[in-house]
Known about the structure:
By secondary structure, this protein is α+β, with helices and mostly antiparallel strands. Helices cover 23% and strands 49% of the residues. The chain has one domain: Nuclear Transport Factor 2, Chain: A (Roll), CATH 3.10.450.50. The chain is built from three helices and seven strands. Strands 1, 2, 3, 4, 5, 6 and 7 form a seven-stranded mixed beta sheet that branches. Helix 1 packs antiparallel against helix 2.
Amino acid sequence: MSTEEQIREFGRVWATAEERGDTDVLAGLAADGFRLVGPLGFVLDREQWLARYGGGDLVTEKLAWTGVEVRDFGSAAIAIGVHEQVATHRGNPVNGRFRGTHVLVREDGRWRLAGIHLSPIGAPFVPGGDGR
């Protein structure tokens, strides 16, 4: 299986674990130094990221990871795609469609998630435009 196929399969396993709130699977996917940068700029370490599902604070009804482009750097890989979720946090809707970047590292022959960065999807910058 190519690195691209491995990373795409990893993404499917990750998205399913998020939908199920399966912290055991997520813990096995995340590297020790994992960090998440959320769409509003907050940062969660590995333990905080896993704790999101504790006590029912976060409920993810649907998470789609689509349009994924993979770049292979040997012992590391970058996957950029669209992260679309239907979810609630402490009863408040946190639905959204974001551009996601997954940073993966190869540890002991398997891929681990070292980081996720989520950003709102906006229009592309056009040079000479109005500067926004």
